[in-house]
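Backbone geometry:

***
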Amino acid sequence: MTDKYDVILIGGGPAGYVGAIRAAQMGFKTLCIDRFKGKNGQYSLGGTCLNVGCIPSKALLDSSKHFEQMTKHYDVHGISFENPAIDVPTMIGRKDKIVKQLTGGIAQLFKANKVNYKAGSGKLLKDRQVEITTDEGTEIVQGEHIVLATGSVPISIPNVDIDNEYILDNAGGLDVAAVPEKLGVIGAGVIGLELGSVWSRLGSEVTVFEAMDTFLAACDQTIAKMAAREFKKQGLDIHLSTFVKSATVKDGKVEVVYEKNGEQTTAVYDKLLVAVGRKAETSGLLSDDCGVTLTDRGQIDVDDECRTAVPNVWAVGDVVRGPMLAHKGSEECSAVIERIAGQHGHIDFNTIPWVIYTEPEIAWVGQTEEQLKAAGVEYKVGTFPFAANGRALAMNEPTGMVKLIADKETDELLGAHIYAANAADLLSECVVAMEFKGCAEDLARIVHAHPTLSEAVFEAAMNVDKRAIHKAN
């Protein structure tokens, strides 16, 4: 007899596991199928984010930040060290311990919420049947509702073959055994800048190749230009409008041929990190007769509420349109489960926050000044530098600024852009304001504790109407 479930989720990353728990909370008989295997070859819940993405990269960023503070910044506090050193295997081990704790925690949450879990691959068949392939064999299950949440995988480029020994993808970039003397990075996006920063802080000479002619094109360019200057000070050598033509491993080194302004150059690195973006993961997911279709970009085709062309079959997260962000996937899947339950699940794509966890952090929500100009929207801007913020100075973190953009007539907050220590956390109040269609004046009327970094948000909101206290308007 075929096992039947109210909700079957294929994928156990931030979208799938959150949706599975939410479904079980609502009383649905729920099954989550996931095939991700960790570095030890064992099945591991949490997808890319918890295993080889968001979480491990932040662990390494934190460790490398402590080392950089010791070697470059603690002297201003009167703190000195003799011959500080980094034990890379210990740093990697700490990262692995955090990953194990969090991925194991999901398994415990599944048990607590009575979510059924199958470690293996799921394939959607016609009539909402799912074929599950595990180490024990194959079985067919039936779902009243199916949610496809298989995430994404790294994009490869021609003539650059990943071996995760010398030429690395995001997973390999998290498991380097020793600090490379010279590190090449293809792609000046989130992964490239974050992992490039990790190894630069630990002593690597880092070169970043970016094909686009604009640095951080998705970011507000006032912030992007400020960040570019800071990355240069930090030692990241970023080359825009540069195309890597090939990478070859020779004698334990990586020989990279790249082209800029029509001229080809060859450079040699100890390691090369490939971080040129990600694509939807649909391999082995869909039978030919299941009825679900793909877009020309290889993503699962869905409507605004994540419905596919097949009734009661949904798709969420990185495998569909929209930003490839863990929190977007989580909220999108929660909204789908609420719709299945007859509720009104909702997610506003205009208020999804973005963060790059470099130092300082780059965080934003809403529209950039460039987007508003292109759309012909009249707006006003308020800014405030952290160099004028007392808490930032006390922390020795004066670099960066807050930039708020509001509608010229209504004062509704249209975008918030922060470049600062703890920018990701500072952005949250701006996201809340935008969710409630708040105005810049709303932020300016809120009493912010003193001294805090959040006062910079307050001052920027005041500056929208040219009445900031601690800067010239």
In short: The mean pLDDT is 97. The chain has three domains: 3-154+279-347, 167-276, 352-464. The first strand starts at residue 3 and ends at 10. The domain at 3-154+279-347 is CATH 3.50.50.60 (FAD/NAD(P)-binding domain).
